Amino acid sequence: MHKAGRSRYGVAAAYWQFAREFLRHPRQIGAVCPSSPVLARRIASLVPPGRGLVLELGPGGGAVTAALLRHGIAAKDLVLLERSDALVRQLARRFPGVRLIHGDAARLASYDVLRSRHVRAVVSSLPLRSLPAPQVRAILDQISAIAGPDTVFIQFSYALHASYLGMARGFEREFSHLVWRNLPPARVESFRYCMQAAAA
């Protein structure tokens, strides 16, 4: 089991770095606080077992990353994609065995690692509801572009009554759940890629 990211120092450093990035880029970060352990565990529990990569978009300070590793995702199968320079440096220190892409979620299909192996799950903490609509469309189209049979897309948001249903082409919703023990409460949804739905 991967032990990186468990020290109190590492968690505290990640929290403060996350807070600094929120103050610099509030729209890109989308949350004042990192995901709670309860929310992070719920997200991680939705990743299916099996072979293939698990791609985490917008890992921030690494709360969900740590939960994914504790859930049993092998470090060699986990890929983090983060846009912030400062958070990339923080993540590299906290999770040295995990593959890290300093890049843009709107360009997923351009990264070799995501083209060379099946993507089992895409775990997104991106604030899709606060980003410009063209950027959101580009990100969702890229998620569809790297998906294969039974790829699972997991997304959470703070819009308690809204849904991401129909936003990512080819995906059908499997699960929707409210996590009240988070600040603020969050809705977690998971979708599965279906070839028939993609062709429709």
Tell me what you see in this structure.
Helix 1 packs antiparallel against helix 5 and helix 3 crosses helix 4 (about 65-70). The protein has 8 helices and 7 strands; from the N terminus they run H-H-H-E-H-E-H-E-H-E-H-E-E-E-H. The protein has a single domain (about 10-200), classed as Rossmann fold, CATH 3.40.50. Helix content is about 35%, strand content about 20%. By secondary structure, it is of the alpha/beta class. The model has no long low-confidence stretch (mean pLDDT about 85). It is globular and about 45 Å long. The protein has helices spanning about 10-25, 25-30, 35-45, 65-70, 85-95, 110-115, 135-145, 195-200, and strands at about 55, 80, 100, 120-125, 150-155, 170-180, 185-195. A hairpin with a 6-residue loop joins strand 6 and strand 7. It starts with 7 loop residues before the first helix and ends with a helix. It has a 7-stranded mixed β-sheet, sandwiched between helices.
